[in-house]
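Lab meeting prep.
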Amino acid sequence: MKKICFIVAMQAEADPLIGHFGLKSLGAVFSPAPCHVFQGIYKDLEITLVTNGKDDGTGLDYVGCEAATLTAQLAIAHYCPDLVVNAGTAGGFASKGACVGDVYLSHKYIVFHDRRVGVPGWDRMGKGYYPCIDSDSLARSGGFKQGICTTGSSLDMIAEDAVQMQQTGGEIKDMEAAAIAWVAQLHHTPLLCVKSITDLVGAEKPTASQFRENLNMATRRLGEACFKIVDEYWADDRL
């Protein structure tokens, strides 16, 4: 039986997938790690979805690279999936054609944009350049956009981040993809990132305001995209 593992930061991003695929909660399988596991069988696929879990102090979802790295390592090492899908929301660039609600698939490679290590060799290692699967056919058939995922530890960005994005060609800005990609590479596990745009870099409204206003719509579109990928492609042996 083929196995696919969704790694998702926030519960709001995960809920549409859990409902559609009929996944059941297994709880905090890796306690004391906070990540939460959901699992089920869908069209002869074993689907596992792992969220980062919530912070006890605030009740909020863990986001960012540390939580993503821990979740990815535990999930991939334990469940040994055939494919990892990092599904989530992200920022986009209107200057590069992004609109709020667009769904992007990872393309070429995945990088960090806030690791400034000014030493030859170490600078490239800091950026990462982690592999992802070829998403060309998925994008054409599913009507998705493609872009290079670039990851940092903050919701907003500073001028130095923009410089690194320019250097690496970053087009989708998030807080988890590169951390998950690093772990997937260590395990030699294929990775696809599916990102729905909640906010546009450089827009008049602050990033946090855009994120809150557009989260529900973006997570709905994220879910629809993941359903299409699994239903039409994974189950059809095209991945």
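Slide two material, second protein:
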Amino acid sequence: MRKLQYNSPVILTYVLLCCGVLVLDGLTGGKSTSLCFCVYRSSLSDPLTYVRLFGHVLGHSGWQHFFNNVLYLLIVGPAVEEKYGSRNLLIAMIVTAFVSGAAHLVLAPGSALLGASGIVFMLIFLASLSGMKKGCIPLTLILVTVFYLGQELYDAIFLHDGISHLTHIIGGLCGTVLGFMMRKGRGR
């Protein structure tokens, strides 16, 4: 008989936390998400402002939003975690949460942000750097940049669909920068 393997601890734990936050959202009528798992302009003297700055990547607006993000997390995440290591991936997720949350506060102060899509885009860009050789830029990175970021830029300019395309772009940029930094750090 085969045993189950918790093969991607950071990704699996993150998915379980997101699911738990969504269940808590249902139990509290949305109050928990509004208080802790959704970033929006609020007083810097409010301690929950800093919780939300990181916690927004755990919140989702509903089960469909959750499933859309979780499918990408579970498809791309384990390979990225194996490639870069659990510790590096956790650091990359924390950095991406902070950068996307802070950028949202500065650039879109009139709206709220929640969801894992910035993390998803960071993972996609980290994955596109897989197999990168020293002194080379992977063609996969260029194609992902053209297709994914190109589409997000177009959507950000021409669509008003309630999706934070800015967060997707920031997630992709974080994935690219962090991927190059982790690659450089490994060579030392």
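Talking points for slide two:
Residues 165-187 form the longest helix (23 residues).
The chain has a mean pLDDT of 91.
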